[in-house]
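Progress narrative, Year 2. Work on Flagellin N-terminal domain-containing protein from endosymbiont of Lamellibrachia luymesi advanced from sequence curation to structure prediction during this period.
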Amino acid sequence: MLQISNARVVGIDNEQRLQRQGETLLRMQDLTRNILSDMRNANDSSEGMSRSRVEQVIDQMDLLLDAVESEVG
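Result:
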């Protein structure tokens, strides 16, 4: 009986871990799309990117790196 309970707990833990990983991957995907969009827009613009926009992109890249590092361990 204890073995069955432990298996259920392990199954729930694995399911929760997989759900968190999926959410992290979706967040990483959104951040990557935003960064690429910003870079493409800056590339198309004759003015380039303002300093504040560059700082926002850097912040997005920091968030992306944090998400990757949290999954890698």
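Residues 47 and 57 are 16 Å apart (CA to CA). The radius of gyration is 19 Å.
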